[in-house]
Amino acid sequence: MQNYTIVQIGQLTPILPVGVVLATALVLVLIDAFGYGRRGTTIAGVGMVGVALSAIALVASFPVHSVSGFGGALRYDGFSALVGLAVLLLLFLTLLMSPPFLRRMRIRGYEYYPLLLLSASGMMLLPMMRELISVVVGIELVSIPLYILAGYNRRSEESKEAALKYFLLGAFASAILLYGAAFIYGSTGSLWLMGIADAIPLLSDRWMLLLGLGLFLVGFGFKVALFPFHVWVPDVYEGSPSTVVAFMSGAVKLALFAVLIKVLLGGFADLDAFWKVLFIWLSAATMLGGNLLALHQMSLKRLLAYSTIAHSGYLALGVVAATPQATSAMLFYLLAYAAAAIGVFAIIAALVGPHRDDVDMDDVRGIARTQPGVAFLVTVMMLSLAGIPPTAGFLAKFYLFWEVYQAGYIGLVIFAIVNSMISVYYYLRVIMAMYLLPAPGEEVPSSPGSDEAAVGTARVLPAVAWHQYLVGVVSVLIILAMGVVPGLLLYLLNTYHA
Q1: Which whole-number Å values give the CA distances from 360 to 62, 296, 311, 363, 364, in the listed order?
Q2: d(CA 265, CA 130)
């Protein structure tokens, strides 16, 4: 007689907030199907209500101790709950900024909003997963809606190209992840992290396991844009709708790094001599490559794309240290980066024209005199990304670098500090353009070869809609709060580390 496992109500606790998000996505599909969502603000508003309800459910079920569900396939703890809350906040801000952007770009079709919620549900599940195939499925739940959203501006050739590149390279990465998982299973006889951890000390020959883990990490390298697996990022960021990039720049990185550290510490801690060396080289190459390639970018979206590559390199430092304090520092860094990234992409989404979803360095020249509030918001975000006090970016880098130093990787910390100094140059270029260079229409020198002569023909930027302006304000408030009074957040992160 077969034994059937009955899912008890208590086992549903980990996925209740995720269930609210999925139910909201279904409601949005039905609203559109019955013709009630033709105004983007209506369907976005319903989505925001669902996200708020999910956040309430998450706070109400916040676990003091870890809770397992579905036979141990999911483990709901404080770390995964904090990641889930951060994802919900980023999703809420993305829904808020999207309606005016979609109207300006003349993008129709309201599948956009359910797809965002579906991707967010995968991000919430990923940090809970304790089995490798479940991790791969969770990554696909995150990625497949984003492949569609990357090409959602169907009138734009750049958007179509971004979706195709993202899909093809993402599919290759998923195949490599599965191939690595197959080797790991063949070596250890288990796909469960606990089973893998128990099997490793008993193995006399580990070459197949190391090959599988290497392939698995290569697949992760594609997903989180580690060098040299980063080549898709600039084109995807440049071609995708700005609001989609705003969401995925912070939220995807947050979820994937959270599950990466859980997988490595939960299943492969005995192989840390292998994967730490691998991440030392990946981190160094990613920091240097991202920062050097960002130096001469004129497109703000491409500049921020190379910037996010460099930030992936900084975050990989936490994987190298792999202490509880380092994982807390990683999550603090991820939150600081996500706050700045979604804010600056919200402003970019507000400033784009109907025929080109990008903003060049020339376009923002002199904006401090025409839209001083916008210039101030962007300045704070850029300073945070550069790691300048008193912003969250400074404290995040200090906290992360200190924990890596404490773990004994002094040379790597020095290398990271040098790369941070390099990055200041291209962030300050944006600030300088906003405050020190003349705006379109102002008197400029008439020498035909000068940069200033070109300013007079730069595109006049539209006024920022209140939706995007509010997202920028919230972003700046989070950045300053995390930089000046981080005590409560640091307490939570140190209490509920990975």
Answers
A1: 43, 12, 22, 5, 7
A2: 11
β-strand pairing of 74-76 with 67-69: antiparallel
Question: Phi and psi dihedrals of 211, rounded to 5?
Answer: -65, -45
Tokens at 259, concatenated: 């599950």
Q: Report which of 79, 75, 150 is spatially closest to residue 112, judged by C-alpha positions.
A: 150
Say whether 449 sits in a helix, a strand or coil: coil
How far is 425 from 210, CA to CA, in rounded Å?
A: 40
Side-chain-side CA neighbours of 482 within 13 Å: the count stands at 35
3-class secondary structure, 131? strand
Successive 10-residue mean pLDDT values, the chain, 498 residues:
47 79 90 67 85 90 74 80 92 90 78 91 90 89 91 82 88 90 89 88 84 90 87 88 89 91 87 88 92 89 92 92 88 93 89 75 83 90 91 92 90 92 92 82 52 50 76 92 87 76
Residues in contact with 83: Cβ distance below 8 Å, sequence separation at least 6, in sequence order: 123, 124, 127, 254, 255, 258, 331
User: Does residue 192 contact residue 131 with C-beta atoms inside 8 Å?
Assistant: yes
Q: How many CB atoms lie within 10 A of CB 188?
A: 22
| Global pTM value | 0.89
CA–CA dist 403, 398 (Å, integer): 9
